[in-house]
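hey so u asked for the seq, here:
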Amino acid sequence: MSLEPDTPTAQFRRVMKSFCLNLTAKLVGCLIFLIIISSTHGQPPTKARVDNVVDDYFGVKVADPYRWMEDLGSKETQDWMKAQAVYTDSYLQKSPKREEILKRLGELSNAGVRVGGIQQRGNLFFYIRREPDEQDFKLYVREGLSGSERLLIDPNKVFNDGRRYSLGVWSVSFDGKYVSYGIAAGGAENGEIRVVETASGRDTGDSIARIRNSSGSWLPDNKSFLYTRLQKLPDDAPANEKYQRRRIYLHVLGTNADADKLIFGNEVNPNIKIEPGLTCAPITKSTWKYAIASVNSTVSPNSEYYVAPIEALEQTPIPWRRIVSFEDEVSALDIRGEDLYLLTYKNTPRYKIIRTIVSNSDLKKAETIFTGGEAVIQNFVAQPDALYVQALDGGNRRIHRVDYKTKKAAPLKIPYEGAATIAPTETNTDGIYFNVVSWTKSAAHFKYDPKTKISAPTNLIPPNPVDMSHIEFLNAKAKSHDGVNIPLVIIYKKGLKLNGKNLALMSGYGAYGIEKTSPAFDTNALPWLERGGVLVLTGVRGGGEYGEEWHKAGFQKTKPNTWKDFIACAEYLIANKYTLPRHLGIIGGSAGGVMISNAIAERPELFGAAIISVGLNNTLRTETTRIGAANVSEFGSVKTVEGFRALLAMDGFLKIKDGVKYPAVLLTTGINDSRVDPWMSAKMAARLQAATASNKPVLLRVDYDAGHGDGTSKEQNNRETADLFAFLFEQLRK
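ran it, structure tokens below
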């Protein structure tokens, strides 16, 4: 039998009981309590200096008390954030349950080998792998499914400058002889491309700087590739210029990257107009005779596509031709011979696949090949034998095979109920590879053979040995403010009692059309579930649970639906006795910060604690950030009256009011974050600390060796998860 920790609150109650007979004793008791609190967590840092900057938007004056924090290079900002980080670390280190949770996370993350990202080239299989005693993933190659594996890339041995590096995206040449890969330091997403020779493991010496999430698209000669590169800017350039005017270049192995040929992008071709805030990316496949250049905001499914014969890439100018415009509302494409297959949501919010011809891409006359009905089509590939389509159907992902001749579609039989996703498959072979995962079974890798109609396991992904059979899940729906039903998944340990006493953690996102409620095998949730906690995943509007219509229902001026849906889900949990407000914690990250910050601003009494991870809290200032231009398509622009009103309505930072009893709040950020600038979290923490009247903590956790989340080590992930759970256990029991 375990006992509750001897908390400062419990000590205080004993002191008060002993001295309740006279006022002096009560004062002594209070003094003892204050001393205990001080010794447990230390003195909180001084509240941030207020220096209001007033902006005028279309006659509306908006005051910002912490604009000075947006200068991350200033000593005052750095000192304030470091003081917050030190205090938060001390506070969380001493939180009850943290050490036992961290130990459990270590056991779970060291259980078995982790493998992912499998790609095949002939008889070679490439994949990332992490051993139980390792912190970061490394890249391996294996000859045949049963052959011995060989290490190709250890990211921490590429350089020797004392910093921690992580492997980013990577691409294999069509003949399997080379791998180009991105690598970055300290959890950042900006780094460089390097190339390794498969046979020898030798670094070729090729190095391309100013890279962000790019590794190259190989060409048929297997000695060159296309890639996207950031512009070269002076050190004092405005932050929001950083990711504008990206361009595509052609690199030939063994040559100087600074001499690479400019292929496509802003101001490259006078006949092609590309807005500075849009990005472009190359797409190639081994069976294509064309190169594709996509143009996208990076946060929208909608893209433009341009095509040019690969043999014409040597010409100047290159004869690029637009085959899809933004008006066509296309999110993906594939080519088979001269047939051009497109995934579009135009007049079909849950998407459909249409076919036209590359040389004459008249989408008005395109043939409809597949519609998912009530299902949402998420992805597809055009293999030699058939189209394979991935669709979200009733919370699960399924794969359909569409015959080219008959147009008939048939679902693939998958080994067990769960989420099936199309995995990278060579374009010159029949069938596909796919992965399957469920709430209680770890991911497995299969190859579907259309001749035998059998899906055989490749055994390249070892099963995770962690037992999740004691965990149950329930699909439910909560009615939102306007009567719309919002899907949610409730996960808990078997034997849960609906008595309102359970600690619950509810998460959500609600942006960019990304769905968040499909099955996943998440062992990191076990320390919460094993201790009786309930985990709830919400599919609020703004996400992609029901296609583009669902996305647009929580988008720009309709964005309030996102947090109102979230609030409705909380009320559902309380009404059905899963939990009570004081036991309910909420969490959201990145664009999910809009949802969490507004939820606590509008209904602070509904939650016991809130966590905002690398959160977008101050939307009215988004356009000044490094990715500000890209996010205009999702949230709007302050340059228009309608955009300003939408951004103001979703700005959680500006909604915080003095004297309100806010829940306990933990904000996290990585100092190398290039998607959501760290000052977003700093300003929100400062405002809440100054405003709250609840005496509950508002903490700012800063990781100085991390970014937005990608590239963090296993130990970093475990420490952060332990901090979050320990914070919740401490705050939600009070």
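The chain has a mean pLDDT of 91. The radius of gyration is 27 Å.
lmk if thats what u needed
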